Amino acid sequence: MQITIRPMETSDVGTVVQGWNCSLVHNQVSAERFEDVIPNDPNHEKNASLVAVHDGKIIGLVSAVAREGVLGADNKGRPNEVDRGYIRGIFVLEEFRRQGIGTKLLNEAAKYLRSKGKSSIWVTVYTGGYFFPGVDLRYEAGVKFFENSGFRRDHVINDLDLDLTNLRISEYQKNARRRMADFGAHVEDYDPSMLDRMRIFVGKANITTWFPEGWEDRFRKSGNKVVAIKDEDIIGWASYSPRAGTAGFGPIAVLGEMRGHGIGSCLLLECVLQMKDAGAEKVIASWANTPFYLPNGWKICRQYVVFEKGV
Ligand SMILES: CC(C)(COP(=O)(O)OP(=O)(O)OC[C@H]1O[C@@H](n2cnc3c(N)ncnc32)[C@H](O)[C@@H]1OP(=O)(O)O)[C@@H](O)C(=O)NCCC(=O)NCCS
What we know:
Layout lengths: L3 E4 L5 H11 L7 H7 L11 E6 L2 E10 L17 E9 L8 H15 L4 E4 L11 E2 L3 H9 L3 E12 L7 H13 L1 E5 L5 H11 L19 E6 L2 E9 L3 E10 L8 H15 L2 E9 L1 H4 L5 E12 L1
Parallel strand pairs: 4-5, 11-12
Antiparallel strand pairs: 1-2, 2-3, 3-4, 5-13, 6-13, 7-12, 7-13, 8-9, 9-10, 10-11
Helix pairs in contact: 5-7
This protein binds coenzyme A.
């Protein structure tokens, strides 16, 4: 079968999104979201997203990304990630599978990543624009494909959710509130007048992924953010995305030396209560720190395996 692999063009997006939605059934996307995540990612380069064409028809896609230097164009990279390239997604239309087309796409993506000086490919754990943090275990063909292409399973990532329709404050959460109060800390809504204190928190927390250059813009207004305060200092923070139906929680961080006093659980609970007040029935935390959420009553709702291979 005659297959051409070529860079994806802007005019391909409509067809690619159709193929994506038929193939990646657990990750339906709109053209707008697809454009946000792939072509509009500051680290995106034309040769990184490739389509497979047969008889003039697009039958597959691979989207790779190589963050250049340590920080990359999105300022979100970390020193230990400098050698990593990423596969953000791959599909081949069902009727064209098991004919080596996925392998061809993957090999071309690997060639691109090598040309950028990358020595390993990760699927995905990319902290720029992403659709999923790893391969959803329900994609059986996808999991087999990466395993049989020489990738190793690095770890599993979970999404967790919480039903808000019968929300009750548990003994565990009441205890967290007592422990936080005994420690002399409390939780309140973030207000832009706290920006200077937030800057000090961000400096101490040192999490470039969540606070890339320009992060202050999001903190010049209030809403959807709470902070934990002790002795006037911000020692923890959490954000959420309120939506009627299913809301999103995260990120959340408590300074290392302030952990173990129930502060994270109290930040989480305050956000949950605010999301419920705003009309949400369920909340999801994606790519979440499972042992923190489980005792707070959350449940694992989705699992992804992270694959890695040297190139
Ligand atoms: C994963 C996917 C891209 C593979 O495309 P493909 O063109 O079928 O891949 P290849 O033909 O190159 O397969 C290479 C090898 O992977 C393995 N493989 C692929 N699909 C498999 C399946 N359904 N069952 C078992 N092994 C499979 C086989 O070892 C295969 O070699 P073989 O056919 O000689 O046995 C395709 O199945 C797909 O689009 N799936 C849905 C999207 C998805 O899950 N993407 C991964 C998440 S990003």
